[in-house]
Design a protein that fits this description.
The complex is a heterodimer. By secondary structure, chain A is of the alpha/beta class. Chain A has a single domain, classed as P-loop containing nucleotide triphosphate hydrolases (Rossmann fold, 3-Layer(aba) Sandwich). Chain A is about 30% helix and about 30% strand. Chain A contains five helices and seven strands; from the N terminus they run βαβββαβαβαβα. Chain A has a seven-stranded mixed β-sheet, sandwiched between helices. In chain A, helix 1 crosses helix 5. The longest helix of chain A has 30 residues. Chain A is globular. By secondary structure, chain B is mainly alpha-helical. Chain B has one domain. Chain B is built from five helices and three strands, in the order H-E-H-E-H-H-E-H. Chain B has a three-stranded antiparallel β-sheet with strand order 2-1-3. Chain B starts with 17 loop residues before the first helix and ends with a helix. The chains are: A alpha/beta, B mainly alpha. The interface between A and B is large, with 50 and 37 residues. Bound molecules: guanosine-5'-triphosphate and magnesium ion (MG). Guanosine-5'-triphosphate (GTP) binds next to helix 1 of chain A. Chain A: GO terms for molecular function: GTP binding; hydrolase activity. Chain A: It comes from Stackebrandtia albiflava. Chain A: Belongs to the GPN-loop GTPase family.
């Protein structure tokens, strides 16, 4: 429908929240900046963490403060949809913060550096645990070993339906292409879901 | 109503971790429930010049509807601290808070198509 004069349908747009995760220094901030229409903003989150290694409960007051950064970017798609990008802090010990940030998130991109593949394990675990659909993007660092997608998939023990793509986070087109792959993946899953619901409904 | 006037919380020697604490005078819980994606906008009822630097700065960023996350990033302050500042401004009648935009439904095919189209069109 090209026109709709119903004033109710011209209400506030819907917010689409996507997460960009991965290990330390893997290119999360660069990725958010490559796609965002605003200069991406990086927030320093100050977290208070109970210090580890004290078994005396009376020491619970002895807390240390840690700083952790979160990136935020935005892309207005049209009158109806606004895309929000959240770059999650790399360190897995900030699971509580990951939890807060992923509330209402549609899906995620896990960025990986093939020199340090293992750094993205905790992000993958997290999204599997939270049942947030994700794809894996291999960021191309100059001196990084080049792996076949299949090798990476095996190394990360990914289910066959999870797409793995290459990207250069410094390139807007390349980063946007990763998001396109992510949305295609979501569309495929959503279509499958509605098909299986239909066939169930038909008494299968 | 919180007293916002004539208070300076700058200390050149204070570290980055100290200043946010000073900005909010040690308060950690905002009086208004704000999400990272809540939208705030200036009411125009309070002059920024009547406020201390941090509150004035925050207020000036909110002439258009803007998300809490964006204010935090622009102010280079932790989100928790930013929420306290913005809640002060809301209490003082300087800002209005709006609910975050409704979150997209993952099974909404129309939304996914629009997202795909929008990304392909722009890049
Ligand atoms: N060669 C190459 N360099 C990249 C790529 N993506 C990011 N970089 C560089 O890698 C460095 C780290 O990138 P960031 O975007 O800061 O990484 P990050 O994940 O935000 O890092 P932390 O927030 O510290 O965990 C920067 O110097 C980027 O320019 C890429 O695809 N290829
Ligand atoms: Mg970063």
């Amino acid at each position: 429908m090209a026109y709709n004069n119903d004033s109710d349908s011209r209400s506030a747009p819907v917010g689409i929240k996507l997460l960009i995760a991965g290990g330390f220094g893997v290119g999360k901030t660069t990725f958010v900046g490559a796609v965002s229409e605003i200069t991406p903003v990086t927030t320093e989150e100050t977290l208070t963490v109970a210090s580890i290694g004290t078994d005396d409960l009376r020491d619970i007051k002895d807390k240390t403060t840690t700083t952790v950064a979160m990136d935020f970017g935005r892309l207005t798609l049209d009158d109806s949809y606004v895309l929000y990008l959240f770059g999650m802090p790399g360190q897995e010990r900030f699971w509580s913060m990951w939890n807060e940030m992923s509330d209402g998130a549609l899906a995620a991109v896990v960025l990986t550096d093939t020199r340090r593949l293992g750094d993205c394990f905790s992000a993958i675990d997290f999204f599997e645990h939270r049942r947030i659909p994700f794809i894996v993007a291999l960021n191309s660092f100059d001196d990084a070993p080049v792996y076949e997608i299949a090798e990476v998939r095996a190394a990360l023990d990914l289910p066959s339906h999870v797409p793995v793509v290459h990207c250069d986070a410094r390139e807007s087109r390349s980063s946007a292409q990763v998001l396109v792959s992510l949305v295609r993946y979501l569309l495929t899953s959503a279509t499958h879901m509605s098909r299986s619901t239909t066939s169930l409904g038909a008494g299968q | 109503m919180p007293r916002l006037e004539e208070e300076q919380w700058y200390d050149d020697d204070a570290g980055r971790l100290v200043r946010p604490f000073l900005v909010t005078r040690g308060r950690t819980a905002p009086t208004v429930e704000l999400d990272l994606l809540s939208l705030v906008q200036s009411t125009g009822a309070v002059e920024p010049t009547k406020l201390d630097l941090d509150h004035a700065h925050a207020l000036q960023l909110c002439t258009m509807k803007i998300s809490v996350a964006e204010v935090a990033g622009l102010m280079r302050l932790p989100a928790t601290v930013t929420k306290v500042l913005l809640a002060d401004l809301i209490d003082a009648g300087a800002l209005l808070a709006h609910e975050p935009l409704p979150a997209a439904d993952p099974e909404d095919l129309k939304m996914l198509e629009a997202l795909l189209h929008g990304l392909q069109q722009r890049f």
